[in-house]
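Standup notes
- DV: blocked on the single-chain target, sequence here:
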Amino acid sequence: MLVLDVLYYVFIIVACFQVCYFLFFFSPFAFQKESIPSTKNIPISVIICAKNEAENLKKFLPTVIAQNYSNFEIVLINDASYDNTLEVMEAFAEKHSNIKIVDVKNNEAFWANKKYALTLGIKSAKNNHLLFTDADCKPVSNNWISQMSAHFSAEKSIVLGYGGYYKIKNSFLNKIIRFETLLTAIQYLSFARMGLPYMGVGRNLAYTKEDFFKASGFMKHMYIRSGDDDLFINEIATATNTSVCVSKESFTMSNPKTTFKSWVTQKKRHITTASHYKTSHKAVLASFYASQLLFWVSGIVLLSFLFNWEVVLVFIGLRFMSQLVIVSFISKKLDEQDLMPFLPFLEFFLVIFQLTIFISNLISKPKHWK
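- DV (later): unblocked, structure below
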């Protein structure tokens, strides 16, 4: 049957492509021994932009204040909140002299644009080295600032960190969210280690004020509501100015979404933002996803018809074995090992989910960060 013959060769090609992708792009990060640079005491400004985050600030800001680092300020940006976020910030500022508050009012030209609020916060920071996190994020240790800042150097002005999500027992949604976060981290951290940085996540990201203003801030993509982290890094990151920090003391943790609806809204925004990456980055990332989709679809169809099923099973086993080995090593680095037993099932669901989101985004696109 001609259709199955074609599908069979497509399957062989994409299975081989997937194995090569894992070996070439991901294995260097998986098997590379982590170097720990010496701790530096450079002045750091921690930037936290909050919109209606009063309760999260009460819960998580103390973990930033308690950092074991002698030379840092905390810049709290109240982005036109309508709850008591500002009052909570002021209460903390009264007790801690290293807290600075930037109260942002909605501007008609930049209505509900997080990038506008962040720009004002960055301008007010007194230090050149900036460390970003979100109001709902908690550093996993008191050495978060020291671990992330240690990767700054004369050459390295960008530091990419890992921001994970808390585990919720017996929650399929939680596993999907954490697996998607793990896969995204594997991609952007592996690419950065290879000298091809293309994004970072605002939950745990550092760069210099000098770089920010040299690039004219967010002006090139200010019209895009999201992307204050990944689009900016996509614009300014190079092989020489970017470092990766995956010390387990450098991680941040956040509360994940608890409903599919809220997570879908978040993912729609993220996928829309990715469409504005550099063409070369989009091509590499799209090729990985397309090969994933074709691998699953062609493999399932071929096995359903028992078409050369022995060979198909061999290539499925080869692909999954290479994936399992490499992803297991990286998941250990990022403390996500509990996801490994569910790897094939989570991947299949995520591939279908991402296709659904992509199609949905062709119809409607989210516009606000909150």
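- Follow-up: The beta strands are 44-50, 72-79, 99-104, 129-134, 137-139, 158-160, 163-165, 205-208, 242-244, 252-254.
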